[in-house]
MFS transporter
Amino acid sequence: MNEPTTEERALRTRVLLLLLFAYVFNFIDRNIVGVLAVPIRDEFNLSDTALSQLGIAFGIFYALIAIPIAWAADRKSRVHIIAGAVALWSLFTATCGMVQNYTQLVVARMGVAVGEAGGIAPSYSLISDYFPREKRSRALAFYSLGIPIGSALGVFFGGWLAAHLSWRSAFIIVGLLGLPAALLIKLLIPEPQRGRFDAATPVAAPPGREVARALFGNPSFWLLSFGAASGSILGYGLIFWLPSFFNRSFGLSIEDVGWFYGSIVLVGGALGTWLGGWLGDRLGAERPGGYALIPAICFLITAPTFALGLFAPNLWVAWLLFTVGQMLALAWLGPVITAVQHIVIPSMRATASASFLFVNNLIGIAFGIYFLGWFSDAMKAAHGSDSLRYSILYGLVFYLLAAVFYLFAAARLRKDIKS
């Protein structure tokens, strides 16, 4: 393949940076609620189970709306859809700061979910048409840096704004700050030809029934999806509940939680996301099973690392263990997302990504956040204020389950990857 020109490299860089910029705000707006859960719980006098309804509402609406939006993205302008999604989730995040009761907050978070559902799968598809196969895992991993960066900034600024202003001000400020990203994407990203770097001749998007048959009959799709979902039960559950854990079990104030946990998410998450993408390109190009083997190994180490962190003797040891655990827990992003792009033809990529995210988010966000909250309440009689610690500890089994799914996927991927 010919080397890209200077102009092509500049365009790729611009596209990736703008999509990353939007993705950062996606995860600021999505995960800021974790650190704000502390004052929200106090103001509305909520149990952990009741507070977890924010995750259920978000996860269900996100999962249900993502597939029809992605179906449209396989047929219409992905750039316009992404720009509209960014504007929508930003406005609904700001709306969260204007609510007068907890029910209104749950409804506003549903609106955030609808917007965010339209941003990620079309972005995966867009990036796959800007980068050739041998560079996709790194490109998608770079885009996925929006997860640790956005999550960390959400914890940083959410904690600081809640401490110095209010949790409502935090929602309003970060929501409005995301609006410029929508305009920049619409004006500065051109829509590329679909499948331009793939061996097969690009074809029009097939009917939805054909896409469904292709996905439902693909074992790798289900193994990758359930592997990601099992890991995300803890991934989303921890980003929501660890701020409360550090507040209750380590005695940190909400502002201190912002700096402490935010640095864990930023350092560990960024290192793990980039490392996973680099390993994915190194191993997956020649051995497709490597796309799944990387996260399988990482998750097997993640569970005991987090378990040790939960019972760390001091904050320094806790920071180190949680940072290593965070690094390993996010190494799946680049290789697994790349594998999902490769198991379907280019004109199915947005829908395949949304279907993958449907499974991942419906189980990961809706169930993960609820499970840890419900389990924490259930163990209050036995463990008192430490119930959340044990809820997280027992929940780490889902990381081991994710490793099992990925090990099976590693054995299957060679058969299902499209040439």
